[in-house]
Structures
1.
Amino acid sequence: MHISTKCSVAIHCLIFIYEYGDRQKVTSDLLSLSTGSNPVTIRNIISSLRKDGIISVKFGTGGATLNCPLGEITLYRICKAIEPDFSSKLIGVHSLPSPLCPVGKNIHNVLDCSYQKIRTDLCESLKSITLENIISDYHYIQHKTDLN
Amino acid sequence: MHISTKCSVAIHCLIFIYEYGDRQKVTSDLLSLSTGSNPVTIRNIISSLRKDGIISVKFGTGGATLNCPLGEITLYRICKAIEPDFSSKLIGVHSLPSPLCPVGKNIHNVLDCSYQKIRTDLCESLKSITLENIISDYHYIQHKTDLN
DNA sequence: AATGGTGTAACTCTAAAAATTACAGGAGGG
DNA sequence: CCCTCCTGTAATTTTTAGAGTTACACCATT
């Protein structure tokens, strides 16, 4: 899956931390249960988010808390924290075109022109969505679900 | 690699067909040599492009030719032809969140709100680039290379 | 009818992603 | 002060999606 599902797991974790972080200690085991991912995977994700400054993790005793306002956490920032070169992984050029063919020799440079634009556009798109938007969606959906 | 490299191979093939299609019979073996991909992979790609109407393939005797003006062939159209649901594969949600957790129960719907926008943005971005642009890049780069 | 193509299905191989195992090290409670 | 619960990270295994391979029916042209 693309823009690896890690990113979705990260958002899941952040929502969880925002909603429950003040009431209980949010550990990797807890997040592992909620997301259905492995605790080590969670720890790696959490670790990346921590290094970017999005969250803090209490050392030794454990527990994660948000470290900055929701509006400052964009999807771009999350993706970047987790997978620094995610945008170059979005679209790939086949690796072994023939250097003997005029097309094969140049295809890499040719595609890079267009692909660079697509990558930039994607980043802009990701920057336009913040955790604030997502949490507001969450509250809206949760409320709607409760009514049924 | 994402927006699978098939898409790059497809563009490679289309450039090749445009440049040499009138001079020689472009077969899957020839394209296989130029792209460095397997002939069957090429045939599958060519077959998808054909079904979309982008190219024609002479049955029996072989050989592919472009079927519509370069300006009408967008990257979006190519991606769509090759991988009809490429945009939903761009970003994935982790598959097994816990239904017992309020976050886990709703995460799928929540993320879909934002992800849908990102997918739409990506499609727009892909629609803005045509084979005409790419071939013009190709000629420019080829010319620059020849000078050295 | 021989040659050289395409179209596709079925299977195998490969490499990237995720899970698992393992363990060193910190904080806080009893 | 040591025991428990947690994190951080390395190393290994498992899983899975993607690409390659094999195989063969079918078609046009010579």
2.
Amino acid sequence: MTGATLDDVARAAGVSRATASRVVTGHGPASPQTRARVAAAVAELGYVPDAAARALVTRTGTRLAIAVIGHTAAVLGDPYVGRVLTTAAHVAAAREVGVSLHWLPLNDPGSLARLAETRGLGGLVVVNPTRPALDTVPRSLRGRVAAIGVGTPDVPSFDVDNRTGTDGVVRHLVTTGRRHIAMVTGPSWLPCGDRAVEAYRRVMHSCGGEVRVVPGNFTAARGAEAAVEIMARWPDTDAVFALSDLTALGVLDGLHALGVQVPGDVAVAGFDDIAFAGLSRPALTTSTHPVEDIAEAAARAVLDRGRVQRATFYPSRLVVRESA
Amino acid sequence: MTGATLDDVARAAGVSRATASRVVTGHGPASPQTRARVAAAVAELGYVPDAAARALVTRTGTRLAIAVIGHTAAVLGDPYVGRVLTTAAHVAAAREVGVSLHWLPLNDPGSLARLAETRGLGGLVVVNPTRPALDTVPRSLRGRVAAIGVGTPDVPSFDVDNRTGTDGVVRHLVTTGRRHIAMVTGPSWLPCGDRAVEAYRRVMHSCGGEVRVVPGNFTAARGAEAAVEIMARWPDTDAVFALSDLTALGVLDGLHALGVQVPGDVAVAGFDDIAFAGLSRPALTTSTHPVEDIAEAAARAVLDRGRVQRATFYPSRLVVRESA
DNA sequence: TACATACATGGAAGCGCTTCCACCGCAATA
DNA sequence: TATTGCGGTGGAAGCGCTTCCATGTATGTA
């Protein structure tokens, strides 16, 4: 009803179904004559191969699933995630595999396993997974799963080198004379932030500064709150480093509302180098990372399935603008 | 190899395939005993139904495709698109239908038709389509297609009311004493901008101002360029309205580089009310629209398939901040 | 005890497609 | 003329699943 089947095409072209299939897929021999007649029938009937039936017999899983973990609104609003999706979709398109997008709740570990188990999956790229969630993925399937963020021994991960990235930013703050540096982290369930906090701690330790960490969640709103908290708790703070540009922008806002001058009174630095970082006033000092490279590597890892590497970290580069 | 089949489950449970299927789908009678044994077998073998095979026989198309038209990097970088995707994915998830994401090139009209023709499609939401592209969609399928942006008589569309939205912003500029107002449009292939330009023209006409339109493309980079162009061409310009916040932010940047004071010398207004609009310095005056409502309505339209409405426009509301 | 009724179950068909295999005719070779 | 090789073709199997239908097997009623 909905559409013509291969049988209809074969009948219309006066050939067998096998021949019609060969012509449509281009997978076997066929005389130019036959080819033309089948093509004509296809055009006339508006034939479109049934993806399900084809997948059933070819057993080819030509779909790249991208799972984004965490609360959706905040997460997709995040330009970082957008860049990941765009790139992964590109890599997939180049290989003619479809892309499916999935929002997985943070607190339903089973959801990732269910997704991974879907047959006919070419690969699965998980954005910002937790390690327990990754562990729910059946062992046999781990070869076709890659993580952007934290990984496991079985699941290769691709991520920014938060440690040296943070180190670079915080050191820059120290170099420019700041000593009372506070840090706004990411959501606690995102383990990738741990390395960043550690790097921050280390720098503060080496320069004798006090460790001042407040929790964040990668949103601008939280940044504004955090700024107020920080200034209330440690009034002598002269720099704030946020592990997300969005949050840093929020900090800028919060500080502005407080009447604090940036960078005069307090320097502010972010992390990610989103498109807006250069547009804020003052323009945000931050650290830029090769998100596209990371996403591409992850997509390739599951689609081309070479040898499995453990965890790959990509360098982040300090971008000095006005805010610090 | 990859996974157990229903036959394996049936064998393991000592029942027929038909019975196993009934238990798994929950679609027929089965004794508690049998049920338990099949369940055990499923658990032990890690059985997961093959989606392709199931789709083949049930003929159920449970997938919502979201096609985004236009150059990908710029488009997904756009927070607007991100909000649309998030919402549509939510609506789909609530109905337990999968989501697939597609980047369609601007100049390949056939690509949309091919996507729409895919069997087993629950619905298709097209973001920012062109009318010609929509016309390539086979008539029989149009009932399950909705557009966000421009539509056709056969394809319902959901969009912001650019006309009154623009009217509101430009009138605000006039009210606050601006007379030499320039406008930066969206990409020329996006017809939704036409109504906005028309509204702008009308306001300028009614207040005797000169019409100053320069092309934009919804990016910040273009906004910065456009600002320079505008000030070079019409040095007495005292306000700039950009049909995208991203572009307006770029205008802010370009003006700043030129040493022009905002809003002192030139007022700037945007459109969309993205998250950053309130964070820029000066905070951006813009117009906010119910993107989530729009995306939800579009997704619902194709998924729930009620009566087809023509085109629905959602009101946009002026948000006055510092820049104008 | 004989019957209808309900429920549980297995057999088998078939969804639309790809692909192995056998076949047929034709040209090239012996 | 008999043989080989090969491109083109159709028959048929089968991918994993759902579901109609027929066949039992326990229950309730006459």
